[in-house]
């Protein structure tokens, strides 16, 4: 992709297709859903913006999450 390095909350490098877990409960804007701490998110996609990844969960599709709330699984 480019020379942008994506890192999780612990400083571990993230890549396309990695699995991550949430380190805190997150409310999803535009819905009544709350993603709970510890939720496993598989197959993330890196974006053009550092600090953000795209992913899908069982309940919500097309999410953009900030890497500061993620931990590599």
Automatic annotation (TrEMBL):
Species of provenance: Streptomyces avidinii
A Pfam entry, by short name: YjdM
SUPFAM superfamilies, per the entry: Prokaryotic SH3-related domain (SSF82057)
Annotated protein name in UniProt: Protein PhnA
Phylogenetic lineage: Bacteria, Bacillati, Actinomycetota, Actinomycetes, Kitasatosporales
Domain Protein YjdM C-terminal, chain residue ranges per copy: 7-73
């Amino acid at each position: 992709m480019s020379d942008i390095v994506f890192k999780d909350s612990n400083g571990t490098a993230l890549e396309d297709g990695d699995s991550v877990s949430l380190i805190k409960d997150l409310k999803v804007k535009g819905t009544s859903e709350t993603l709970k701490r510890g939720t496993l998110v598989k197959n993330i996609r890196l974006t053009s913006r550092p600090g953000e990844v795209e992913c899908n969960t069982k309940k919500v599709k097309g999410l953009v999450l900030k890497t500061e709330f993620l931990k590599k699984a």
